[in-house]
Amino acid sequence: MRIVLLVAVFPQVSETFIVRKFLGLLAAGWDMHLVCAASDPRQWHNFPELADPALRRRVHKAWPHHPRWLAGLVWPLAILMAFLGNPPGAAR
């Protein structure tokens, strides 16, 4: 099962709980991913446990939301992909 954590900005010093939860669930065998709206590369040194490139590939920046009309163009594609990937779940 895949678990996705959503945060506004990652990494931040105040996100130590999120980092521990992310690493703990990953070590337990869950397919963990983290999605953030913004990421400051200068903050990665605060979390040496995330230095592994395999872990960093699990951190994703969110879809564009500025300007707002651009995010509106992406929604139909997201809905279509949801229905193609899991029709009963998407309908529910």
Task: Report what the structure shows.
With 92 residues, the protein is α/β, with parallel strands linked by helices. The protein is 42% helix and 21% strand. It contains 4 helices and 3 strands, in the order βαβαβαα. It has helices at 16-27, 53-56, 68-85, 87-91; strands at 2-9, 31-38, 59-61. The protein has a 3-stranded parallel sheet with strand order 1-2-3, with helices on one face. α1 links the parallel β1 and β2. The longest helix is centred in the last third of the chain and has 18 residues, at 68-85.
User: What's the rounded overall pLDDT mean?
Assistant: 85
The proportion of residues in beta strands is: 15-25%
C-alpha Rg (nearest Å): 15 Å
The number of helical elements comes to 4
Helix content: 40-55%
Distance between the termini: 18 Å
Total strands: 3
Q: Record the strand order, biggest sheet.
A: 1-2-3
Runs in which pLDDT lies below 50 for 5 or more consecutive residues are none
Assign an overall shape. Answer: flat
Helices and strands, in order, run as EHEHEHH
What is the SS-derived class? alpha/beta
Tell me about the largest β-sheet.
3 strands, parallel
Quick overview of this protein structure:
This protein has helices spanning 16-27, 53-56, 68-85, 87-91, and strands at 2-9, 31-38, 59-61.
Notable traits:
92 residues, flat, three-stranded parallel sheet, 3 strands, alpha/beta, single chain, 21% strand, 4 helices
